[in-house]
Amino acid sequence: MKTATLLAAASLATLSFAASDSEASGPPDSLFSGKSGEPADAPNQSGKQDLTDAELKAYDGSDPSKPLYLAINGTIYDVSAGRGFYGPGGHYGHFAGRDATRAWVTECWETEDQLTHDMRGLVEAMFLPKYMDEELSDAADGKAGADSSLGDLKDQAKKLVSKFGRPSRKERKRRREADRPEAEEKLEQALGKWVSFFAAGGKYPTVGKVVREEGWEESAPEPPAVCEEARKKRPIRGGGKLDAIMNMPMQMGGQAGVVQEDDRDEL
Ligand code: HEM
Predict the structure, then answer these.
(1) Which of 70, 73, 92, 196 best tests ligand 1's pocket when mutated (most atoms within 8 Å of CB)?
(2) How far is the CA of 197 from the centre of ligand 1 (A)?
(3) Among 76, 97, 156, 258, which residue's beta carbon has the most beta carbons within 10 A?
(4) How many whole angstroms from 12 Cα to the centroid of ligand 1?
(5) SUPFAM superfamilies, alphabetically (predicted)?
(6) Count of domains in the chain?
């Protein structure tokens, strides 16, 4: 993306996310909590219209006599003023009539199942750094996951592992724990930009909340894996001795093809 688009959207949102969310729609829900507000009723005590996911579908623009709604992070907005964007045939028409919070962050909307509010697994799939020494170690053991491009390079991986060493299970766990807070923050920021755009942009009135049963995730199927483009955004670190190599400038003999973390946004 489309950095320009994001920047444009962010600049439209003049208030900070926290402030805007509370002003626009009552007490702020924590991001991706799946909180649903009060039971569906139209309108509710605060004059807002809360809808279930199924009810929200009726406002996807296919009936021109109805307003056009979309939801993000559990809050519904009336985007009728943006029918060209969100109406049938519009560039962002797939966001209409649903809470597709996941897709706002991933930018994956090729398949219907990506258009969900379900944020489970996104921190791991897009924001938690991936370590090359772990990838190599797994590839050498034939354990490389679908994510890895090293699966076919078992022999080369073995050689590299004997040179650079293996991260222990304890070390892997330590990394996950140490990296998680920053990864969660990055996810909040990625979503917060869009939430602010709708909550504080002044263009689209808040309609209400999406009503979901408490504990909906227990009976919901696992959300889909993120698309390849989104997976590529995951930060990459060397890990152990590989850190030094990953941080080496290319002209100093850094490995061609190894993406340096600071460069990733530019690719
Ligand atoms: C190839 C990539 C993209 C292009 C060329 C593009 C282009 C545009 C253009 C030309 C506008 C209109 C700006 C204006 O009002 O003058 C726009 C608005 C917008 N774009 Fe994109 N965009 C892209 C990707 C994305 C992605 C990935 C998302 C969301 C995840 C997104 C979300 C939006 C939103 C929410 C608006 C504002 C619409 C409104 O005013 O309600 N765009 N984009």
Answers:
(1) 92
(2) 11
(3) 76
(4) 12
(5) Cytochrome b5-like heme/steroid binding domain (SSF55856)
(6) 1
Nearest-CA residue for atom 30 of ligand 1: 104
Q: What is the dihedral of CA 29, 107, 11, 95, to 10 degrees?
A: -70
Q: Which of 2, 3, 5 most suits a substitution to test ligand 1, by most atoms within 8 Å of the C-beta?
A: 5
- Residue 82 Cβ inside 6 Å of ligand 1? The answer reads yes
Phi/psi of residue 158, nearest 5 degrees: -60, -45
- Lookup: tokens for 195: 């939430």
pLDDT value at residue 26: 34
CB of 3 closer than 6 A to ligand 1? no
Helix-then-strand count for the chain, H and E: 12, 6
Q: What number of other Cβ atoms are within 10 A of residue 238's Cβ? A: 20
For residues 146 and 105, the model is more confident at: 105
> What does the alpha-carbon distance between residue 82 and residue 79 come to, in Å, rounded to a whole number?
5
Most distant CA pair in the chain, distance: 67
Rounded Cα–Cα distance for residues 19 and 126 (Å) = 27
Tell me the CATH number at 126.
3.10.120.10
pTM above 0.85, yes or no: no
Residue 119 lies in domain: 3-266
